[in-house]
Design a protein that fits this description.
The structure is a homodimer of 200-residue chains.
Chain A (H helix, E strand, L loop, with lengths): L5 H16 L6 H7 L14 H9 L4 H11 L5 H18 L4 H10 L5 H24 L7 H19 L6 H14 L8 H7 L1
The first copy, chain A, binds a DNA duplex (18 and 18 nucleotides) through loops.
DNA sequence: GTCTATATCTGGATAGAC
DNA sequence: GTCTATCCAGATATAGAC
């Protein structure tokens, strides 16, 4: 996080360029120019271009993982926890300079190279799935397939980035809307999603 | 659609390669090899590489547009129409060989070049928004912002492609799950989403 | 640490023979 | 229509001076 750390500076610039130009179109020259270095100077900090991508990818799952870990150990009924997760996740995603889906796709095409990413991602999925399962068991959620529901939650969180960029809005407002709709579709008939939303 | 049409063959191969390698990594040489031509022979059919991309992009909005046009003029309450839209859209997306989100992003970075795409996209958004608005008016949907809801619906439809590819499942099953959750979060308290789902 | 210079490669695109 | 040959631009990466 140190402002003077060149590696950190490069990664911040890389995130910005990934968002503007796309990952593939972000070349070492452009990246170097962005931080005021010569093209070849980047190789002092990174072995190659892929290492820059890998360094950014490594951070992609940190926020949602910390978020859900904090929630499962906290208080509240399952729908409330899920609401908070979705809202926090969407809000964090909307704040990223680059598109998580693009990272996702690149990591998907090189599964072994990004093995760490996929492990964390699988862990996130497991945590979310078991949270949903708990909700189905205690009756606060409908009787849906927890794995399918978990995947759908993550999908809509990430999909939101796609249109958020096209039509910028206050991130919190978007996050609340997505959470309300997504979790509203999961709660058991007796439970009022609006009450959950105002409590969260 | 003619099997012997070289242009059609190239586009089908392009879709496949876009999915496997990504759009940027799909070169004219690879594409030519895929259809059994020399690299330069492609230039007989397409002026340049972007034209291949544009030809595929042009088709991206056709299915969901036809889908919603058919629904708005048909029978049924709004939630039922929305359920059918989401299910149909997700099912179609899961059947595509390439990732619509990648196309989306490429078109987003060159708005003027893909002006047609964005016009159709805007039309789709308007149709969906007004369908949601109708539902809010007649009380079959909750009192949510129609524009925000419409965007969220499209986002989760498209986001689904992201994980569907990672963990392949029967497309219809996935589509039903997404539709049930998404529309379930929109219907007014009195309406049972399970009833809608079984009717659809 | 950062630079200049350079080797090497790959892809897009055109010209012109067949 | 499809090919071969070729040009050109841009990108990765390394070597070695400062």
């Amino acid at each position: 996080m140190a402002a003077g750390d060149p590696i950190e500076e490069v990664l911040i610039a890389a995130g910005r360029l990934f968002g503007q130009l796309g990952v593939e179109a972000t070349t070492m020259s452009k990246l170097a120019a962005e931080v005021g270095l010569g093209q070849s100077s980047l190789y002092y900090y990174f072995r190659n271009r892929d290492e820059v991508v890998a360094a950014l990818v490594a951070r992609a799952n940190v926020v949602p993982l910390e978020l859900i870990e904090g929630l499962v150990h906290g208080d509240g009924i399952v729908p409330l926890k899920l609401y908070r997760f979705v809202r926090g996740d969407v809000e964090a995603l909307c704040g990223l300079p680059f598109d998580i889906n693009e990272i996702h796709r690149i990591a998907g095409r090189q599964r072994d190279r990004f093995a760490d990413y996929w492990q964390e991602r699988a862990l996130l999925d497991r945590r979310l799935t078991s949270l949903v399962r708990a909700g189905v068991r205690d009756g606060s959620l409908r009787d849906i397939d927890p794995r399918l529901a978990s995947a759908t939650i993550l999908a809509s969180d990430e999909g939101t980035q796609n249109w958020f960029r096209l039509r910028p809005q206050p991130a919190r407002r978007v996050a609340d809307a997505v959470a309300r709709i997504t979790i509203g579709g999961l709660v058991a008939p007796g439970i009022d999603i609006d009450e959950i939303a105002s409590e969260a």
